[in-house]
Amino acid sequence: xxxxxxxxxxxxxxxxxxxxxxxxxxxxxxxxxxxxxxxxxxxxxxxxxxxxxxxxxxxxxxxxxxxxxxxxxxxxxxxxxxxxxxxxxxxxxxxxxxxxxxxxxxxxxxxxxxxxxxxxxxxxxxxxxxxxxxxxxxxxxxxxxxxxxxxxxxxxxxxxxxxxxxxxxxxxxxxxxxxxxxxxxxxxxxxxxxxxxxxxxxxxxxxxxxxxxxxxxxxxxxxxxxxxxxxxxxxxxxxxxxxxxxxxxxxxxxxxxxxxxxxxxxxxxxxxxxxxxxxxxxxxxxxxxxxxxxxxxxxxxxxxxxxxxxxxxxxx
Length: 316
Hints:
- The chain is 66% helix and 0% strand.
- It has 316 residues and is mostly helical.
- Helix 9 runs antiparallel to helix 11 and helix 9 packs antiparallel against helix 13.
- The longest helix has 28 residues.
- About 10% of the residues have low confidence.
- One of its GO terms (molecular function) is electron transfer activity.
- Keywords: Coiled coil.
């Protein structure tokens, strides 16, 4: 019995020694390298501040440089976006009647799904309703000014004013606003069915300050830019989604134009107008590429993204 215990104790001691040796081996590290300062002199800066000439740049200055680059892409013109588009043929140069009609139908269907019950509306649905109505008011304003043959053109001004008024009221949820939104839902259904609006009173000219706020327009622009990127991951995907890409690109070009209309926030700011023009120009290039059957549009989509990012960094 004693011999067995002695053997077990010896074996345990042997295992313990092995474990200690293994742990010690694992803890061994190669010594840290040493360098002679003369060997690295002239290769690395002694201080990060020495790497810059003049003042060390800040994040805000780097962001502004990106925005300035986007502004420069507009060829330094100080002519307003509205004047450029009007001189080139107005809205017809930016968006086709079919794109306007299809988008009105799409947004109308989404708006229908939002206006369900007062509880859902007051619980957050009013935000979706505001965006949908802001988009629709903008689209009808463009339809009213478009030189082409666009459906609902004879009632576009009335639809613009009715829908814009409710969009502004949808900044908060309440039973009263919900009931007003339900009326707009019925109006849109009357338009879609062909029976037309019961009330066709409208202002003779478009007052863009009364049509839409900049915030929902920028939100809409972000959605369009995201859809363009997702639909054009490669040439094959772009070809499969060519109709959607062309429509969304035209809509984004239109938004860039609308953002500079008199009455909207900072529309008279030359830098802001140039950034908006940059987005319009980039989006129009995407639409033009699809029109000529070119689906390798990675660089064009990249220009759209860059123009949107440059604008959002300085303006919201």
